[in-house]
Amino acid sequence: MVNEVPVFVVGAGVAGLSTAIRAQEAGFNVTIFAETFPGDKKTIKYTSCWAAANHISVATTNALLHQLERETLSVFLEMLKKDPLIPVMIRPHKEHVQVLGPEGQKQLDHLSNCYSDFRLLEPNELPEGVTKGAMYSTICIDVPRYLPWVLERFLALGGRAFRGTLPSLSALLSEEDRPSLTPFPPTSTNVHPSLNPVAIINCTGIGARSIGDVLDADVYPTRGEVLIIRAPWIKHGLSYYYEDGHLTYAIPRQSGDVILGGSFQVDDWHPISRPEMVKLIKERGIAAYPELLPPDKREARNIADLDVVEECVGLRPTRKGGVRLEVTSLNAHSKSLPIVHNYGHGGAGYQSSWGSAKAAVDLLKSAVNE
Ligand SMILES: Cc1cc2nc3c(=O)[nH]c(=O)nc-3n(C[C@H](O)[C@H](O)[C@H](O)COP(=O)(O)OP(=O)(O)OC[C@H]3O[C@@H](n4cnc5c(N)ncnc54)[C@H](O)[C@@H]3O)c2cc1C
Ligand SMILES: *[C@@H]1O[C@H](CO)[C@@H](O)[C@H](O)[C@H]1NC(C)=O
Ligand SMILES: *[C@@H]1O[C@H](CO)[C@@H](O)[C@H](O)[C@H]1NC(C)=O
Asked: Which of 174, 196, 231, 323 is the least crowded, having the fewest Cβ atoms under 10 Å away?
């Protein structure tokens, strides 16, 4: 069966790829346009390649995000049931809190509603210096394997993709305004895409600030520095809340790498790591989780013994008011068509990806049927 109705998706991060697949499943003929794709050299403009990533709800006060995260978790669990070998695994995660304040208490209460096997740790299970703790199972996504895997699914469903840097979304609608577009993957024999999509889906992440017919001034980065550590013996994740506000987090990946974080720096665009932050992440990391060090090096607690594979910086696409799942209309080149926005997921783009994709495609279906 050939899908006849063309829809464009702009962006090939976790938001764009997941949305493109849901749109294909709804019967649309989907073409993705993006500057950066999975497998490219990592760049600060492509947040998805830097993510940790696991599912730990951050939707304490955001009902929409909570719903999107909840749906996404069940999609991942369902996928794992069908195929346990996908680049996603279920692991225990521990929360260690030095001093529990009212915000921390709220977050623990919230997590207890999100994860079915959530339990508080007994006092004798807490390490020295930690006054409150919890444990539950959640998913860890092996990002460098997961992104190409999702792209593969899109291509296998007959999806087409083009690489290009768009000055605006409306540029896609006119032969003269279109920037140069090259088929992706380069070996594909994609013909030049139609100029008449029935809708465009906007999944441009932090790029949403620069692509534009109109600028969304509500989008800003929350900068995150993390380290990739080689530590295949690590079997559980950890969030360790220091009394001074620093959060150490560790997320094991299927590959045996562990992400060690981190930082949350509001409106900070600095694209490369800062030595003082790297040092802090290491010091706080081994103090909170000495097992990150090789077994024979744990006694000495020397940061030089961490097996650091890579220093990473990513810009979480944060948005005042939260995720934008909304339809507007675009009038350009004597055409008028709906734009479905799906961007601004901040630090939750993976854990809300499938829920957001479904919501965006529901919006697409009703916009197109009107
Ligand atoms: C350190 C760190 C840890 C994280 N940990 C987690 C976690 O544990 N769990 C979680 O759920 N999330 C996590 N995140 C957040 C997650 O990475 C983001 O929410 C998510 O990757 C955003 O995806 P996106 O598809 O919206 O944007 P992106 O991945 O940035 O993709 C944007 C796409 O749009 C394209 N684009 C933009 N502008 C243009 C243009 N003008 N022309 C053509 N193409 C354009 C880009 O090329 C790219 O393909 C983390 C992020 C960081 C930095
Ligand atoms: C999408 O449309 C193109 C151009 O009309 C067509 O060649 C292709 O087979 C369609 N793809 C799918 C998956 O139906
Ligand atoms: C796509 O979203 C970005 C971010 O808000 C915005 O700048 C751009 O104008 C949007 N495109 C259209 C045509 O609405």
From this structure: 196
**pTM exceeds cut of 0.90:** yes
167 lines ligand 3 (CB under 6 A): no
pLDDT in tens, 238-290: 999 999 999 999 999 999 999 999 999 999 999 999 999 999 999 999 999 99
253 CA distance to ligand 3 centroid (A)? 34
pLDDT in tens, 59-84: 999 999 999 999 999 999 999 999 99
Dig out the tokens for 57 from the structure.
């709800």
Q: Phi and psi dihedrals of 318, rounded to 5?
A: -90, 150
CA distance 136 to 112: 9
User: How do beta strands 247-252 and 257-261 pair?
Assistant: antiparallel
CB atoms within 10 A of CB 300: 10
Nearest ligand 2 atom to the CA of 159 is 13
Structure token digits, residue 175: 């032969």
Cα of 213 from ligand 3 centre, angstroms: 6
Q: What is the DSSP code (8-state) at residue 176?
A: T
Beta partners for 318? 220
Length of the chain: 370
> Domains in the chain, ordered, with CATH?
1-53+143-217+320-370 (3.40.50.720)
Contacts of 24 (CB under 8 A, 6+ apart): 3, 30, 154, 157, 158, 159
Strand pairing class (219-230; 308-319)? antiparallel
How crowded is the C-beta side of 281, counted as CA atoms within 13 Å?
26
Q: How far apart are CA 282 and CA 289, in angstroms?
A: 10
Which contacts of 25-30 are long-range, i.e. CB under 8 A and separated by 24 or more positions?
25/157, 26/361, 26/364, 26/365, 27/3, 28/3, 28/198, 28/364, 29/2, 29/3, 29/4, 29/5, 29/158, 30/3, 30/6, 30/154, 30/159, 30/160
Q: What are phi and psi of 108, to 5 degrees?
A: -65, -40
Query: If 0-12 CB within 10 Å is exposed, 13-18 middle and 19+ buried, where does residue 151 land?
Result: buried
CA-based radius of gyration for the chain = 21
- The tally of CA atoms less than 13 A away on the side-chain side of residue 241 is 18
CA distance 162 to 31: 8
